[in-house]
UniProtKB/TrEMBL annotation:
SUPFAM superfamilies listed in its UniProt record: Homeodomain-like, Regulatory protein AraC
Superkingdom of origin: Bacteria
Keyword Transcription: yes
Keyword Protease: no
InterPro entries referenced in this protein's UniProt entry, alphabetically: AraC-bd, Homeodomain-like_sf, HTH-like, HTH_AraC, Tscrpt_reg_AraC-type_HTH
All copies of domain HTH araC/xylS-type, residue ranges: 184-282
GO MF terms held by the record: DNA-binding transcription factor activity; sequence-specific DNA binding
Pfam family, one: HTH_18
SMART domains linked to this entry: HTH_ARAC
Protein name: AraC-type DNA-binding protein
Coiled coil region boundaries: none
Keywords: DNA-binding, Transcription, Transcription regulation
Amino acid sequence: MNRNNSHKAYGFHFKGEHQERVAGIYTIGKEIRTEHTYIWDGLKRSEEGKVVFQYTLNGNGAIRIEDTTYSLMKGQAFLVKLPSDHCYYLPAESNQWEFIYITLFGTEALHYYTLITEKYGHIFQFPTNSRPIKQIFRLLEKIETTGILHGYEASGYAYSFLMEFMQYIEHDQSKEVELPLAIAKAVSFLEKKYADDLTLDDIVKVSGLSKYHFTRLFARTMQVTPIQFLTKIRMKQAVELLQDNSLSIEDIAKQVGYRNGNYFSKVFKSILNITPSEYRNNQSYMPVDQLFID
């Protein structure tokens, strides 16, 4: 492979078994390739147990993964393991490929590689300001200014990249996608009417879809059922109301859509593993102003 093009590549060989047990950085860099001798064959490389993430900044690259070839334009990235049946290269029809990359290793890196690729595949689309891409740029800036001094530091950055990747594809990405109109109507309705005694039929009616199509679309879009979504809204509101000692559990139950305190308490405990009264009175539980529920 020709290495006469513009590039900044950094490699790391720190001591410490924690990198193998968790994650470590093997290489990271930013490159511009203009020669068609730029070819990496995943079955001819000597590295083993490594995970390569490469993101296109400008130009056009390509990757073959088994029997399928993908064009990699600006904003697109791939995630592959070494060794495996893939080959990435500067295609004949492209004059330039500018990209950033990071290569990781370790048990957790391989674990998340498997988790990600089994669910989402090998090819991704990322905005330049998305979490994983900003993390690589931050790392490059850190390396170029103060460097990475030891394996613990490198391992922390490697694991942070994996978490930024997961957060983007599991949470941030779904927020960036505009909700289907029927789902947007239902979500708005639930956020306004959570205190009412709502049924699934009430939510379906607002959507304008059949119950079958609505429930499937809602679960696919929001990753929870309509009733689970409603319950999360109610529990968040309940936690806020529990800070007001003038309100009884019965009062709070009615204000968040439950007919009686007993049923409300059962639901609350099923979500938070503690009853509303215990949450309010037990000083070992730190009160919060806003609750985030997965």
